[in-house]
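Hello Y.,

Per our agreement to keep a running log of every chain we model this quarter, I'm adding this entry. I've kept the format consistent with earlier entries: sequence first, then predicted structure.
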Amino acid sequence: MEHDVFGFLPNLFQILERSAFGLLIRDAVLIYPIANVVHVLSVLVFFASVAIMDLRVLGALRADAGEAVIARFRPVALGAFCALLASGIVLFTPEASAIIKNPSFQIKLALIAIGALNVIWLERALKRGYPGMTARTARIPAALSLVVWLGVAAAGRYIAYI
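Predicted structure for the entry above:
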């Protein structure tokens, strides 16, 4: 009996692939390609909005108040992240047992977890730095954010080649 990478619930990912949802995606002609396009476009919107917020924290875009930039782009980033999650589930499901074993996918998941923890760190640093958002403590997680989310996109792209 084969076990998945994480050691729990043997065949969980095969069950997911064979679920009604997995079969629907596999059998439909347009669902997978549409999800792929949505995923790529969502990556662009997500990274652009995150980059704008991070660059503002790092000192760029000084003409705009930091709070205003973040307030404007945070909902965009959150919406794009939700679209990434939804489309990612559609892309993952029909090939779950193979994708979960892919080292690039595992790196992508680890980087997403690091990115999420970094968001918490950045939020805390920014709260200490308001209203001027000059807190040096916020600059480290903002720079890390740019690197981590680019890494997520690169690892995601590389999945097809491993």
